[in-house]
Amino acid sequence: MRLSYEDKKFMQVLTKQGLLKGAKTCKLEFCEHCVLGKKTKVKFGTAIHRTRGILDYVHINVWGPFKNVSLGDKHYFVSFVDDYSRRNLMYTMSHKREVLDIFVELRRRMELQTDRKIKILRSDNGGVYKCDLFLQLCHDEGIERYFTVRETPQ
Questions:
Q1: Count of helix runs (H) and strand runs (E) in the chain
Q2: 76 band by pLDDT with thresholds 50, 70 and 90
Q3: What does the angle CA 142 – CA 95 – CA 70 come to, to the nearest 5 degrees?
Q4: What is the C-alpha to C-alpha distance for residues 83 and 127, in angstroms, rounded to an integer?
């Protein structure tokens, strides 16, 4: 039977207290696997980006599919958060492929209402944001894209 570093350390303590009669102690070696096994995710520091106005920096995220379907047969929703005002808009969807159409409509409406253009759009690396049509639209409209790592909401 092979003991872990922690088990060996615990055995040394018990031997020193005289609780394990006849047991011998030895010098313990450093175990890299034990240290890596205890490693946890490191928190991200606070991001320092200063937005000067509405629509300068917009976050987008798709959620779903959900087990419980809504009354309108919607399985997903997409959220848009303006970094400056913290205004949050959410739309329900039946399919992920609806994201581009919703973004086009939202962008048109918000830019008409505020007389400002979306400058930066931040999303994860999900496939719905990296499709050719979505990337081409952002390129044509001069919207800078920032991508985060998927499944890391920090």
A1: 4, 5
A2: very high
A3: 125
A4: 23
Q: Determine the structural domain holding residue 15 and report its residue range.
A: 5-37
Do 85 and 9 reside in the same domain of the chain?
A: no
Whether residue 50 lies inside any domain: the answer is no
Q: What is the pLDDT of residues 28-43, one digit of tens each?
A: 677 777 667 666 666 6
d(CA 33, CA 39): 10
Q: In what order do the strands lie in the sheet containing 88-93?
A: 88-93, 76-82, 57-63, 120-124, 144-148
In a domain, 48, yes or no: no
Place of tokens 């209402």: 113
Say if 42 falls within a structural domain.
no
DSSP per-residue letters across 72-121: T---EEEEEEETTT--EEEEEESSGGGHHHHHHHHHHHHHHHHS----EE
CB-CB neighbours of 2 under 10 Å: 5
Number of structural domains in the chain: 2
| pLDDT tens sequence across 78-123 | 999 999 999 999 999 999 999 999 999 999 999 999 999 999 999 9
The 10s digit of each residue's pLDDT in 39-62 is: 666 666 666 667 889 999 999 999
